[in-house]
């Protein structure tokens, strides 16, 4: 009796729900092709220009004259940054290796490409990148726009081809309109795509750390932090020559004594000069607490390991930077308290508002 | 009488025409190219080919320096001043040229300051760009009589770095001749260089090279031995004093020519 009732109910359900579904096509196994946008219906091109406000004490940011910041450009760049459409199999976005929670770096030693390929360098953090004049550990890109071109076609990263990516973007339901709004054309190119990403990256600014509040006279350091600051910005620690100023990077390249014979030749790969062997770009130390592991190859898991390295782990080599003044002694030989103080100061560089800023989240 | 009037009028007219036809002198340009030498040789970076007066073979790996307060002195002793500072960063294939707009006149001397005076060595004096701001001088090495919050120690004057063979036997050490306002001291100095000939400016362009001889930092009047002070001289005023004294013979002019 119960079975009969159940069969009747099932039949009724099929008639009431199934038939309309067939007519409306929603159970069609073939998805409907996305409706292409009619370019003629696009609104007039009226970008909203953004005035970039340089944080107090920061140098001017040099924004390329052909890529002014606009609300629409930043929006598009943000969307692209988080969209795996840029990768060969549409599984990996820029944010896959530059995660906001890690201050837009990667907590893995080496980032993993779409097919499981593993490189030999740590993904650099994206923090205040608008002030960077050379990008990548080996400085092979001269602008954010140039940098953004690289990972898409990199055979161990996104493993795509720009023409293919551009075709996908052109066929997409939203991107033609977004490109039109940002650049006045729906004729999508890779150049426009990287311009948008660069615009978004220029807005990713970190300046709310304790280090910033202290330099603006709003807070005081603890004794330990102050001692760490004094070491950092004097010849005792001598961190400031490479990691100085408000950007906490000198934007240039150094051999900091990691290896006596560098396996990864760094800048030499780009310049082909033996004098550049084992030189790598100085990363900013902003949010350093959040960007482990450390160095170009992520060899150090903790900040304590990094401090130990500068204290007693320096390796001599032919291209050692003259700024590595303690190289003859293998390092600065910090006392346990000095190490603690340096660590305390480094933690004042953390800007939690940066890693929680909703303006940098996925759309 | 009428003839006299006509003659006077003609003379006045001719004089007027002559005066009005005379071209007003116009300003010109002086282009100063920053050049570097070691002894008599053009600087070659990264080559252990130089010998210090203290007897150490050495090489130069990095050189950046700031000159400021450029001025030109004319024949009558009047001075045309140019505000601001200029950072020269020596990089292969790049030259730094200072273009000065010069009022018409006859000039005999170039003056400038090595580094920045105490008054001008503040953050706002130089362009607020990444390149310039990278030359900053850190607070703990600034004027410690000023409270930290108000302290603005300004900028390095020079970062001159390299390696040397300490015993002439392959024991390589590093040197960093970083000059600047050690604990608030004014270690900058003025330099006056006469031109080899008077420069007449009247809508024309002159060119010359301003040479820094890097060997001179190490001698005249005192020998600067890398071994004496070690690789970190920013807090050592005695080292800064020697470099300041030696700096007086570091600069020279060359290759003055009208284009």
Task: Give me the count of strands of chain A.
Answer: 2
In DSSP terms (H or I, runs of 4 or more residues), the helix count of chain B works out at: 4
Tell me what the CATH architecture of the largest domain in chain A is: Orthogonal Bundle
Largest interface: A-B, 29 and 28 residues
Computed structural class of chain A: mainly alpha
Ends apart, CA distance between termini of chain B: 54 Å
The whole-number mean of residue pLDDT values of chain A reads 92
Strand/helix succession of chain A: HHHHHHHHEHEHHH
* Span of the ends, CA to CA of chain A: 54 Å
Helix- and strand-based class of chain B?
mainly beta
Query: DSSP strand (E) fraction of chain A?
Result: under 5%
Low-confidence stretches of chain B: none
Q: Give the ordered list of helices and strands of chain B.
A: HEEEEEEEEHEEEEHHE
* Helix fraction of chain B by DSSP (H/I, runs of at least 4): 10-25%
| CATH classification, class level of the largest domain in chain A | Mainly Alpha
C-alpha geometry of chain B: globular
Please provide a written account of the structure.
The complex is a heterodimer of chains A (363) and B (259). Chain A has 2 domains: 67-205, Cytochrome c-like domain (Cytochrome Bc1 Complex, Chain D, domain 2, Orthogonal Bundle), CATH 1.10.760.10; 210-354, Cytochrome Bc1 Complex, Chain D, domain 2, CATH 1.10.760.10. With 363 residues, chain A is mainly α. Chain A contains 12 helices and 2 strands; from the N terminus they run ααααααααβαβααα. In chain A, helix 2 packs antiparallel against helix 5 (175-183). Chain A has helices spanning 2-24, 71-81, 144-153, 162-171, 175-183, 190-202, 210-215, 223-232, 268-271, 303-312, 336-347, 352-356, and strands spanning 253-254, 280-281. A two-stranded antiparallel sheet of chain A has the order 1-2. Helix content of chain B is 15%, strand content 40%. By secondary structure, chain B is mainly β. In chain B, the strands form 2 sheets. In chain B, strands 3, 4, 5, 6, 8, 9, 10 and 11 form an 8-stranded antiparallel sheet that branches. The interface between A and B is medium-sized, with 29 and 28 residues.
């Amino acid at each position: 009796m119960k079975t009969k009732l159940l069969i009747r109910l099932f039949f009724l359900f099929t008639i009431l729900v199934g038939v309309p579904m067939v007519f409306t096509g929603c159970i069609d196994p073939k998805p409907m092709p996305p409706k292409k946008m009619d370019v003629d219906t696009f609104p007039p091109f009226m970008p909203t220009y953004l005035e970039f406000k340089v944080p107090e004490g920061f140098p001017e940011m040099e924004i390329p004259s052909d890529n002014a910041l606009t609300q629409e450009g930043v929006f598009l760049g943000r969307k692209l940054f988080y969209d795996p459409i840029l990768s060969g199999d549409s599984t990996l976005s820029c944010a896959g290796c530059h995660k906001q929670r890690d201050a837009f770096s990667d907590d893995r030693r080496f980032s993993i490409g779409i097919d499981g390929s593993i490189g030999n360098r740590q993904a650099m953090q994206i923090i205040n990148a608008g002030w960077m004049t050379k990008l990548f550990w080996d400085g092979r890109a001269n602008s954010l726009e140039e940098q953004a071109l690289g990972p898409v076609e990199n055979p161990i990263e996104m493993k795509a081809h720009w023409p293919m990516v551009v075709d996908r973007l052109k066929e997409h339901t939203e991107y033609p309109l977004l490109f039109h709004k940002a650049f006045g054309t729906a004729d999508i190119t890779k150049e426009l795509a990287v311009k948008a990403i660069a615009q978004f990256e220029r807005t990713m600014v970190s300046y709310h750390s304790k280090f910033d509040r202290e330099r603006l006279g709003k807070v005081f350091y603890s004794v330990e932090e102050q001692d760490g600051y004094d070491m950092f910005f004097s010849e005792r620690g001598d961190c400031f020559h490479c990691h100085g100023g408000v950007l906490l990077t000198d934007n240039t390249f150094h051999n900091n004594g990691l290896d006596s014979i560098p396996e990864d030749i760094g800048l030499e790969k780009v310049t082909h000069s033996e004098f550049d062997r084992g030189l790598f770009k100085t990363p900013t130390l902003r949010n350093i607490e959040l960007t482990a592991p450390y160095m170009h190859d992520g060899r150090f898991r903790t900040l304590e390991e990094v401090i130990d390295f500068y204290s007693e782990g320096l390796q001599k080599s032919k291209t050692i930077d003259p700024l590595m003044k303690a190289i003859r002694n293998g390092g600065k030989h910090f006392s346990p308290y000095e190490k603690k103080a340096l660590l305390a100061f480094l933690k004042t560089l953390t800007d939690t508002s940066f890693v929680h800023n909703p303006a940098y989240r996925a759309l | 009488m009428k003839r006299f009037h006509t003659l006077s009028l003609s003379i006045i007219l001719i004089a007027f025409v002559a005066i009005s036809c005379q071209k007003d002198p116009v300003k010109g340009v002086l282009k100063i190219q920053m050049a570097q030498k070691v002894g008599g040789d053009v600087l070659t970076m990264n080559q252990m080919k130089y010998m210090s007066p203290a007897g150490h073979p050495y090489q130069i790996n990095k050189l950046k320096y700031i000159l400021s307060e450029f001025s030109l002195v004319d024949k009558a002793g009047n001075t045309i001043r140019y505000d601001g500072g200029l950072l020269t960063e020596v990089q292969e294939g790049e030259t730094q040229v200072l273009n000065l707009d010069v009022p018409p006149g006859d000039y005999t001397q170039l003056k400038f300051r090595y580094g920045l005076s105490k008054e001008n060595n503040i953050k706002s004096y130089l362009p607020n760009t990444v390149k310039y701001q990278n030359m900053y001088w850190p607070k703990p090495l600034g004027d410690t009589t000023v409270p930290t919050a108000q302290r603005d120690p300004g900028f390095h004057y020079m970062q001159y770095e390299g390696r040397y063979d300490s015993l002439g036997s392959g024991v390589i050490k590093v040197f960093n001749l970083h000059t600047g306002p050690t604990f608030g001291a004014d270690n900058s100095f003025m330099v006056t260089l006469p031109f080899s000939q008077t420069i007449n400016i009247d809508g024309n362009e002159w060119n010359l090279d301003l040479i820094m001889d890097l060997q001179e930092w190490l001698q005249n009047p005192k020998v600067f031995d890398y071994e004496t002070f070690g690789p970190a001289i920013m807090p050592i005023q005695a080292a800064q004093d020697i470099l300041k004294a030696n700096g007086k013979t570091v600069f020279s002019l060359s290759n003055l020519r009208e284009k």
